[in-house]
């Protein structure tokens, strides 16, 4: 205890405080005893739970709600019954504190999912159980009509002798008579036989002693109600169905084949199909709850609580996802800011504080940065500037190339008429030379003309 106290003083952490509390409780148990320690802890729990309920009602505004909404609030009812059992444990009996151990189910989500796996699809489970009861009732009717003599339920001999009001003389009948020196042995034996023959029948029902080991068996289907109870009790609790407790018939009996069909149908329909349907609904529900829990944990781990951006949005960026949720969009900072605008004097509000206060008062969440972050906006802005510069340079290059191309096209357009003129002049000279042969010699000497 002293070591844990030193750890709490030097390093005040939650684990160290818990260790100190456990050590202190153990010290009180060894010093004062279990019951005084339990009573002291119960009183402390009553005080703390009472303060907790009062603060919970104040935060939720319970007193301003309707009475129906108050009594249907599951969380408030849970804490109220917790306090009630604490009071019962302090005032009536300490064993009421044992019920408070179920608080671990409320605190641990995995155990809470185990309970929800039964309650979420409770309608399906209840309807399947009703189907099982109907089938058991039908098999009970068949057993009562045809196999009444086969319902021999094993019972304990001592339990049957004492529980049905028998005297101790029934147990003495199974023992050897004590030999007395005052009474002859034959007289003692005669008296014992007469006494045992006058003993009443156990419970008004017949008991049969089997040949192997002297096991006592009782008829369990002499009435319809007993047949239903026996089939429901023994049939559902045995792995092979009702056939495990019925008498094993001989193959020479007339009802041997119907008995085999009866046992197999009960086993396949009730034990394999119906019971596995109930188990399957529970297991599937638990698997769905577990997958939902994993999905929630994955979302909380990889998604920003404030803006809703995924972790992948911060890949290859200057700001990592951990830095974003720790510094830029810390959800506790937003909570502190909401508390600030609620407790601060409205006359001292700044512009953003006035805007947020109006939004919070109107229950509007538009002031949260939805799918936005300043770090991503800055990075995206720099990237856009770089892209704009590259596009501008590309446009200038294309403009220069287009100007050069236009210049070349204009030069070609100017050269084409000159070539056409020269070609026409050459054709005219050839035509003139053909018409005037005397001038052809001059054309030969001056071809450039």
From TrEMBL:
Keywords: Membrane, Transmembrane, Transmembrane helix. It holds the Pfam family Ion_trans. Coiled coil: none annotated. The keyword Membrane applies. The chain crosses the membrane at residues 6-26, 38-60, 80-105, 125-147, 264-287. InterPro entries: Ion_trans_dom, Ryanodine_IP3_receptor. One of its GO terms (molecular function) is monoatomic ion channel activity. One of its GO terms (biological process) is calcium ion transport. Its main location: membrane. It is a multi-pass membrane protein. Residues 79-293 form the Ion transport domain. It is found in: Membrane. GO terms for cellular component: membrane. PANTHER family: MIR DOMAIN-CONTAINING PROTEIN, RYR_IP3R HOMOLOGY ASSOCIATED DOMAIN-CONTAINING PROTEIN. This is Ion transport domain-containing protein. It comes from Anopheles maculatus. The lineage of its organism: Eukaryota, Metazoa, Ecdysozoa, Arthropoda, Hexapoda.
